# Entry
Amino acid sequence: MTKIQFELDGKQVEAINGETIWQVAKRQGREIPHLCHSPEPDYRPDGNCRACMVEVEGERVLAASCKRTPSVGMKVKSASPRAIAAQKMVMELLVADQPARGTSHDPDSKFWYWAEKVEVTESRFPAAERWRGDASHPAMRVNLDSCIQCGLCVRACREVQVNDVIGMAYRNHGSKIVFDFDDPMGESTCVACGECVQACPTGALMPSVMLDDNQTRVIYADRKVDSLCPFCGVGCQVTYQVKDEKVIYAEGRDGPANHNRLCVKGRFGFDYIHHPHRLTKPLVRLPNAKKDAN
# Structure
C-alpha cells in the first residue's frame, strides 16, 4: 500500500494507492464541485468540465482535482480565492446555456445542486443556440438544451456498459452528443439499459415518466426502497423510486453482481407490478374442486 503525505487546505493528509486530490478531499469531508466526474464504479475521471479546479502552491495554473494525484509535500488549496473564482466562473458559463431552473428538465439535478453550492444560479453571459428535444424513445427523453458535454453518458455507454452507441460528433460550437450516426435515440442501436440516464448530471437524459409534455420534471419520488431485480437470477441490486405507492423508476445499486448497472428489464420493466391482471393474493384450491382424471 502506497501512502503519500501532502497538505490539503492547511491540514496534513494521506493519499492511499494513487487516490486523486478529489478522492482524498471527499474522504476528509470536503466537498469540491464536480460535474464530469462520477465516483461510481468503473467511471474514470475525465477532467473536462473544470468545475473541480484547485490551487497547487508553486504551480502557475490550477489543477483538476478529479484527475490530479498528489505528490509528497504538495500543498493544495481547494477553497482559496483563486480556486473559488475559477469554480464560480465555470458554473456561470454553464448556467448561461441552461433552461431556467423552474422550467428545466430536472430542477433537482446534480448540476443545479452544485450551482446552488457555489452560489451561481444566474449568468450574465448570453445563451448559445441549443438543440431540439428527441422524444423518439418510449422510456427515455433526450433534451440536449441541458447538455454540458461532460462526456459522462459517452463513458457510461462506451466504457461501463460497452454498447458504444453514444458519441460526440461535429466540431467546435457545433459539437453535440449523438446516438450512432446522429440518429433519433429510438431508432438507434440503443439497448435501453438506461446507464446514460443514471449518469447524466443535468437532466439532458431523463426517464420519460418523470416529464410532462413541456419536458419539465413533474414527478418526484416520495421515498426510495432498496431491493433486488425480480427478473433473472443474476441478483442485480436496485433502488426503486416510489410515488403514491407506485414504482416510477429503478436505479442500479452497487451490488456484487451489477455494480450499479441494470439491463432494460431491470430499469424499465417494472410496470407489470401495477397491472390489473396481476395476482396479489395466493390462489388456494378449494377442497374437492379437482376432479379425478380417471
Observations:
- The chain has a mean pLDDT of 94.
- The chain has six helices and twelve strands.
- The longest helix spans residues 81-96.
